[in-house]
Amino acid sequence: MLRKIYDWIDERVDITPLWRDLADHEVPEHVNPAHHFSAFVYCFGGLTFFIVLIQILSGMFLALYYVPDILNAHASMEYLQHELAFGAIVRGMHHWGASVVIVMLFLHTLRVFFQGAYKKPRELNWVVGMLIFFVMLGLGFTGYLLPWDNKAYFATKVGIEIAGSVPVLGPYIAQFLQGGPVVGAETLTRFFAIHVFFLPAALLGLLAVHFILIRRQGISGPL
Ligand code: HEM
Question: Which residue range or ranges hold the Cytochrome b/b6 N-terminal region profile domain (predicted)?
């Protein structure tokens, strides 16, 4: 049955080359830990991606219950955490994943740096990687405000003040982030939109470029 559906689609839009391209790709020996144990360092990019997927999935489920306004945000998190079935687990995955993904991202970046994998011809992918890095930090910063408790509020206040102290552009960045005269309703709405729409869209686009470049250029090495 499935085979028939597959053949029906394939006959019309020729999808076989799409997955063959990946399936027939041989992983080089120097990145296989079964051959050289030290090759485990190549796992960190894939692990980062795995946790990014967990963040997207758990975030989608959180969004079913989270209410992005200052009167209800905190109560909706309390409900999610303490009353909703599996709520604490899904929130826990998103909460801890947010930290683990930064650790993995850091290890991946260190691997690329210390192996000199950013050198010609991979300079462009390093630059794409740096953009991804900033997007990931932005996701962490904007997500932190959403529970709308004291820790969230004051961390954001401090973060915006730090951004505001940047020479020349600082006040504009702070105004853009805060969205209004104080850290308040406008800030929460804005951080929510940036956290669930703007930055994830940017991340997916950048990751697509990251992966296309890796596929085109092949993995670097052996050293
Ligand atoms: C969400 C973030 C990221 C994901 C999911 C990701 C994923 C990957 C994956 C799966 C690879 C294949 C090799 C490996 O796993 O080590 C790779 C390679 C690479 N990544 Fe990333 N990456 C991310 C962020 C970054 C950052 C922040 C940088 C640098 C600033 C970077 C620079 C590179 C470069 C230059 C390569 C090619 C390395 C080589 O050919 O040896 N990536 N990335």
Answer: 5-223
Whose CA is closest to 90, among 64, 48, 61, 65? Answer: 61
Query: Residue 49 Cα, ligand 1 centroid: separation in angstroms?
Result: 9
Domain coordinates of the chain in residue numbers?
Answer: 44-217
Query: Ligand 1 — pocket residues by CB below 6 A?
Result: 42, 44-46, 48-49, 52, 105, 108-109, 111-112, 117-118, 122, 125-126, 129-130, 132-133, 136, 207, 210, 214, 219-220
Dist. CA 37–CA 33, nearest whole Å: 4
Give how far Cα 127 sits from Cα of 97, 118, 151, 183, 216, Å. 24, 9, 33, 33, 16
Q: What is the pLDDT of residues 128-161, one digit of tens each?
A: 999 999 999 999 999 999 999 999 999 999 999 9
Residue type at position 128: V
Question: What is the Å distance from ligand 1's center to 192 Cα?
Answer: 27
- pTM comes to 0.94
As its CATH architecture, domain 44-217 has Up-down Bundle (1.20)
